[in-house]
């Protein structure tokens, strides 16, 4: 079965999750969801073929509490577009850096943590950017919107034009 992501919407068209095609087909066969868009691929089943879904809408409403945007490595890296905030290098081999080091009283908050490559992290050490003669490309800040789907999934979902009509638009402060 192809490994394509499927956007799952609540019955009020609010994004809930990004799931696998296998999970999407399970929801469809159990009558819990309907297809809004197909992705152009075919899925072979024991009884034939069906067009793979791209966007599903649940037939019932799932009540969810307002999510909290947790400060995590994955969320910070997604916020910073997987880009070192000192040298601008891209990649998945990034770490987190406290702009004001913890030992100097720097908090572990959205406004003090940035994505950083290992080379820049070693160069900066336990200093502030000014002390290390390094400049931040963008000041860190907490994202203004909390999506129901995780921040990394939300940012990945924004690349799919078909999904954009279902995703809320907000400024995330990425380093583009």
Description of the molecule:
This protein is an alpha+beta fold. Helix content is about 20%, strand content about 25%. It has helices at about 20-30, 75-80, 120-125, 150-155, 160-165, and strands at about 5-10, 15-20, 35-45, 50-60, 95-100, 115. Strands 2-1-4-3 form a 4-stranded mixed beta sheet, with helices on both faces. A two-stranded antiparallel ribbon has the order 5-6. β3 (about 35-45) and β4 (about 50-60) form a beta hairpin. The relative contact order is 0.18. The mean pLDDT is about 85.
Secondary structure: elements and pairs:
Blueprint: E1 5-9, E2 15-20, H1 21-29, E3 33-45, E4 48-58, H2 73-79, E5 94-98, E6 113-117, H3 118-124, H4 151-157, H5 161-164
Parallel strand pairs: 1-4
Antiparallel strand pairs: 1-2, 3-4, 5-6
Major sheet, described briefly? 4 strands, mixed
Helix/strand structural class: alpha+beta
Please indicate the percent range of residues in DSSP E strands (runs of 2 or more).
25-35%
Report the end-to-end length measured between terminal Cα atoms.
Answer: 34 Å
Tell me roughly what share of residues is in helical segments: 10-25%
Question: H/E order of the elements?
Answer: EEHEEHEEHHH
If you compute it from the alpha carbons, what radius of gyration comes out, rounded to the nearest whole angstrom? 20 Å
Which segments are poorly predicted (pLDDT under 50) over 5 or more consecutive residues?
none
The oligomeric status of these chains comes to single chain
What is the residue-mean pLDDT, rounded to a whole number?
Answer: 86
Number of strands: 6
Number of helices: 5
C-alpha geometry: elongated
In spatial order, strands of the major sheet run 2-1-4-3
